Amino acid sequence: MFFRNKNISIENDKILKEIDMNKIPKHIAMIMDGNGRWAKKRNLPRSFGHKAGVETIREIVKTCSKLGVKYLTLYAFSTENWKRPADEVSTLMNLLVEYLKGELEELNKNNVIINYIGDISALPDICQKELLNSHSKTKYNTGLTLNLALNYGGRDEIIRAVKQICTDISKNNMDIEKIDEKLISNYLYTSNMPDPDLLIRTSGELRISNFLLYQIAYTELWFTDVYWPDFKPYHLYKAIIDYQKRDRRFGTVK
Ligand code: FPP
Fold first, then answer.
1. Does 221 contact ligand 1 (Cβ within 6 A)?
2. Inter-residue contact 116 to 191 (CB < 8 Å)
3. Is residue 5 part of a domain?
4. Could you tell me if residue 137 is inside a domain?
5. 33, 182, 209, 225: which has the highest count of C-beta atoms within 10 A?
């Protein structure tokens, strides 16, 4: 074990040197997929996959924080995830509460701000309470903002924004002519945050699954076959190195 870990650390040290620390993506979004398949491969219940997935979250948050990433948005529970069996939904909610309670001190130590996007009013009271508590106890930190996407759906977010814009227009609080890309951004959960530079999806699925639909217009996408519980800082480094080699033109020529 000792030697295995030592090898991993040597690999990490080697690959870390390839990262240009002046070009770290400001905002990374992640679709954490493959917990269920990770567990199935080991003949374990799906809940074990989610538990292992939380360990990955711990490690990846710390790594992003050390690298100087400013925003990390994790797709933790989608508007569609309510269709899962009730016991799985409740496992996920319990893990969220455990994570927030158990990690608060460490997150504070790492200067992390805990934030959420999505309609949390539909979550169990205890989840809402812990989210608000974690946010209020970390909001003056100045490092990484960890956005947990909970009861989040990209289409739902856009519908809410449209409704709010219409309401503001009907109350004469806003002029139709003022509607532009920036204004719509300001009505989204991610207002005041830059759009993601890099979106990572694990588990080999090649789709967006209703995540940050408006915000990812020019985001660089990176996919890996690795299941979320097996996703390590090493994979994140690889994704960042790939990202740094890409030519981001935002529709213009260079
Ligand atoms: C996808 O795997 C994962 C999820 C839907 C939930 C992600 C949640 C966690 C990692 C833990 C709880 C969250 C926090 C913030 C503590 P899947 O179940 O869809 O995997 P599968 O496609 O292989 O079945």
1. no
2. no
3. no
4. yes
5. 33
- pLDDT tens per residue, range 32-65: 999 999 999 999 999 999 999 999 999 999 999 9
How many DSSP H helices and E strands does the chain contain? 8, 6
Question: Cβ-count burial of 105 within 10 angstroms (0-12 exposed, 13-18 middle, 19+ buried)?
Answer: exposed
Nearest alpha carbon, ligand 1 atom 10: 53
**Span 98-156, pLDDT tens digits:** 999 999 999 999 999 999 999 999 999 999 999 999 999 999 999 999 999 999 999 99
Ligand 1 site, residue 53, Cβ cutoff 6 A: yes
Domain extent at residue 66: 23-152+195-245
CB of 50 closer than 6 A to ligand 1?
yes
The answer on whether 248 is annotated among ligand-binding residues is no
Q: How many domains does the chain have?
A: 1
- The Cα 172–Cα 164 span in angstroms is 12
Q: Does residue 74 lie within any of the structural domains? A: yes
**Domain of residue 45, CATH code:** 3.40.1180.10
